[in-house]
Amino acid sequence: MATSGEQTERVGTVRWATFAGVCVLALLWSAYSVGAQNGTFLTQDFGAQYHLAKMTAHGAIPLVDFEHGWNAGSFWVSAVLYAAASGSPTIWYFLWGRLLGAGLGAVLAAAIGLRLRLHPAVMIAAALGVLLLATPLHIKYTICLLWVFVLLPTGWLESRPRLAAAARVLLPALVFWQYVELAVLLTGASGLFELFARREASWRTRIVNCVQLAGGFVLGLAVQAAAYKVLWGLSFADFNRQVILGQTETHEGSQYAVWNFFDLPTESGRFFILALYPFALLLPFVPLVWQRVSDSTRLIALAGLVLVVVPIRRVDNPHTTTVSALVLLAVVIAVAELYERRTSPAAGVRAPVIALPLAAAGALWAAATLWIGFGLQSMAGGVILVALAVAGAVLGAAFLRGTVAVVSAGALVVLGCVPALASVDHLDDMRRDAKSFQVTDAITRWAGPEYERCSAGTREALVMPNHLELYDTLDITNPTPYYLFHYDFAQYEDVLVPQLEDGSVPVIIETMPLHTPQPWLTDAIHTNYVPCSIVRIEKQATTVTIWTHKSRGSVERRDLSVRGGELVPTR
């Protein structure tokens, strides 16, 4: 695995075969993860993009939505996909969302592996991570992967200065036409890389590279302004209000989220993305890790870092997962590179007295970066997070030397506590929010007194077909050996029916209808028992019927409902 400069190792047949396999898997996943798009789809965000693609395909002027990053070129691409789909929203979403989203993202991850000559296993891990865990929602967020693939400081591009310069100019210009937000963020990430992360290159070269990146962004803006003027007669003042001034005004007074590590949303099975994101985001910037990873990994990590503004502004699974592809990719490659360099001599610690304060300093850096960056309710939070992460990585790797391992250990302890404590808190939330015993508790509270009245003191009763906790909460025992009324319960008919007939089961507490009809059982109950009490618990949508055997004599029959916290006769 080369770090930077010209690659000397051949790609090889195994890597090409791995890449081909990823392409096939991405296509299959993209197709089989799409459902038929219905009217609900057409009223949501994706539906809005579909209709705007349709309008653009029919000749409407492509709008510019600076707030969400959409730009003129993106609507032209969507219009082409609309035409290719013959107007079908399902096929359009397959192309625009799945195939050119997560599918292309996995392919680009594997392609980055080819350029870096990663081990096939690492290529597969990165591709599957992007496909199944990060899962870019649509074509917009695969631009991030395409950006780093093109600008990786290694291989054939770096050996051709003119071609590299053209890429640094044209890529920001093209991305600006597609997505303004990503053009701003990724141009900034590449500028940070040139100034603070690239090794070996002279300062003159780095500054020239930054100028080329900025020039490409300005070129995209200028060409688009000219196009609107020539094609649609839109003045530059109107264009400026549309693209920049008018759109950025929509951010005034907007609410920026606070990323509460220990109170994250729990409604989704992909909660772990939210728990791991802060840890994974900063892991490559721990000084020891930053010191040992390649320039290519540094670029990927920086590109992922600046995208943190997206999930910080809106803390949820879709926004976090869709921008976490680069974060995940950086972590996978960093771990692979650290493993490759595992035989390198470890940095020593000068003295135990120095070790603890240095570890505390590393912990303080990590804690401050997390707390301020994710906790400040302002766009400044994202800016400070990036600044602290880059400063800690660059300065720590440059000046710590023999103590870098101790400082990094302190930082890793803090970073590791985030997903660990967040997961514990998540489980506690689930424990408190669990609904599993609420129905049983309600039955015990409202039907318990009715059981006491109907049972006349007997502690033997059969609970059917569920809520077996009632045996404990009502302090009763089951006079039969049967508890689970499963689909083949009829095999016990010859044993249970005689018990129901002779009164061996004095009381039956029916908590819900049988999952699988058992006519022989219900017939035996209706023949030999009378409903002493019916308790309707409306809040839990549960009706409890307490049956007593006819041999126990006549009983007062009651039909009750729980309303307003009281047990009242059902009307």
TrEMBL record:
Keyword Methyltransferase set for record: no
This protein's UniProt keywords: Membrane, Transmembrane, Transmembrane helix
Transmembrane segments: 12-32, 91-114, 121-149, 169-195, 207-228, 271-290, 297-315, 321-339, 351-374, 380-399, 404-422
Name of this protein: Uncharacterized protein
Organism listed in the record: Nocardioides turkmenicus
